[in-house]
Amino acid sequence: IAFDYGFLLRISEDARRAEALNEYLSCRSYLAGYGPTQADAEAFKLLCGPPNQRHAHALRWYRHIAALLPQMNGQAADSTKGKRVQPPWSPPDGTEIPKLKLYNSLTRTKELFVPQRGNRVLWYCCGPTVYDASHMGHARSYISFDILRRILMNYFKYDVFYCMNITDIDDKIIKRARQNHLLVQYRAKKPSASQILQDVLTAKQPFQVKLAETTDPDKKQMLERLDTAVTTALTPLQGAIQSKAPDAAIQKQAEVLLEEAKDLLSDWLDSQFGSQVTENSIFSLLPKYWEGEYHKDMDALNVLPADVLTRVSEYVPEIVEFVKKILDNGYGYESNGSVYFDTAKFDASSGHSYAKLVPEAVGDQKALQEGEGDLSISADRLSEKHSQNDFALWKASKPGEPSWESPWGKGRPGWHIECSAMAGSILGESMDIHGGGFDLRFPHHDNELAQSEAYFENNHWVRYFLHTGHLTIAGCKMSKSLKNFITIKDALAKHTARQLRLAFLMHSWKDTLDYSNNTMESAIQYEKFMSEFFLNVKDILRTPTDITGQFEKWEAEEIELNKSFYEKKEAVHEALCDNIDTRSALEEMRALVSQSNAYVAARKSAKLLPNRMLLQSIAHYLTDMFKTFGAIEGTEPIGFPVGNNGQSADLESTVMPYLNVLSDFREGVRKIAREQKVTEVLQLCDVVRDDILPELGVRLEDHEEGKEISKGQTKKLRKLYEAQEKLYNEYLQTNQNGS
């Protein structure tokens, strides 16, 4: 058996090398019938001297080879006649492969991503509070997290388990449900115009006090807009009543005022009669409706559904048990039927720290009160706490609020405890990723961390905290409470889901994104640029060839483009490893397309066909990346899908034969029209090419040799037939007129 001494090359220490050699020789015959080889000589040279006597096999072998070595050297000239052996082999040095790093809000830096359990990633994301229409501020978080989730699953191949909650019990929901209910009742009574005027004027008094006391500039601006709208609607009604205008005119003005003042009026109605709303179904119908609308919006945006969806209303028993254990562990206290978290005691405990995410925000009463909710910051509620920094785990229900049984009396969950109990129930004592919007860091996520680590008695409930940046309009934060938002449905009426996703992909997921015409125009132009490339490649691939003809010789141009292709793939990978930098990744993809376009143009200029297989590989790669980002649905191997939303068929391949027929027919008509000098028919041919087909997403282009090609993104096949039929009838009519 040939002596395999390659393993000795990997050992630098002589004593260790002798020990390894001894172990190797202990199971190999090297005396009886033994003939030394060049391999023995090479191994001999690796040793600095005779092995230690305790390595008996290695020492015996060493002495044997030492005795035979002169004979071996004498036979070196005849060595070519003997048996040849393989030369030594060593692995290449290689290069360091980039590893995924994520910006972790717990450290405010990019950290190497290491899941706790092999390849499995446990991920919890804060979902919506469903009391109104979802807006683009929500889309900012949910599309961004959908992109991150898809990349982790489909690019980095992690096994992601994604859990998200629906908050359907909350101060905002309770208040909005009561307001809607009371306003409906008010309208049902059909109040007179004078009654509406009187009630609005009455409601305006506490509103003016609230406006004067508001210091937050964004909220103040929102309230001022409402005040202006109500005042503007008040004046015509007052004038109509004073001038004793016709009843119909007065009632019309009253309806205008009621519509403009509905927020102001419903708030006043709630302050007067909210405590009388006792039917629990009133508080469940509102969130149920808006949750349904939320899911429709997410589906329209191509956001993947969560693996597990939890609703607060379904987890009240688990929340009660969660609160009980926090009390048992000594981190909470009961006060007047409510239960509060003792932040000071928790922070003073060994191994615990309060406000890990935003420690500088501790004591920010404005933020803390917003976290407690509008219905939970009355003077009596605030006086129940040991410290103003403490927060509610369980709230004793007041009249006009839904309630559930608990050891502390009837009440409802605090906001922060909901996520802790639900995430803990599904994901256990520690998760890999927790996600949410930037504005949730304090107090919501800091309070989640504190109460969860108090429950599990650990300090690692979340390993990586990811927070998406704000979405602004003209520099102002988009917010429901500020009534400064564009609904997702409104956004989708102007732009496609792909265009919205591309806009998000072109910006960092953790930074502020301004939703503007410029932002969307950049996304649209990027989409057009990529779509044009895909259409060109598909046109090249449609060029007839046999099965062997598609494999063409590579010249210097192909080698250069292929080199650039792999460089761009490496650059994309590096960008995605760097905190999933999709902005840089898309720029590298754009550069790859620019280089591919230059290659195609150069080949066509030289009257040569571009290399099909190389362009197909590039187009496949780009398509796969867009699928990874969630910007392409369907199974088409190249490019963006064609057809209306919901169409699963490959419409382009279905329609293309008809487009080719239309193209050939048009070219034939143009040829006859040119020969017979019928300019009207030529003009009609131009109308079909320039006006009708582009509206259907189809463009006709001319090859160098004069033959037309068609690039299709058509929506309505019937219109193609109508265009063809119109052209043919016009041609027949022209000939019948004797032209």
TrEMBL record:
Keyword Membrane (UniProt): no
Alphabetized UniProt keyword annotations: Aminoacyl-tRNA synthetase, ATP-binding, Ligase, Metal-binding, Nucleotide-binding, Protein biosynthesis, Zinc
Superkingdom in the source lineage: Eukaryota
Listed GO biological process terms: cysteinyl-tRNA aminoacylation
InterPro entries according to UniProt: Cys-tRNA-ligase, Cys-tRNA/MSH_ligase, Glutathione-S-Trfase_C_sf, Rossmann-like_a/b/a_fold, tRNA-synt_1_cat_dom, tRNAsynth_Ia_anticodon-bd
Required cofactor(s): Zn(2+)
Role noted for this protein: Catalyzes the ATP-dependent ligation of cysteine to tRNA(Cys).
HAMAP family to which the protein is assigned, alphabetical: Cys_tRNA_synth (MF_00041)
Protein known as: Cysteine--tRNA ligase, cytoplasmic
Species of provenance: Astyanax mexicanus
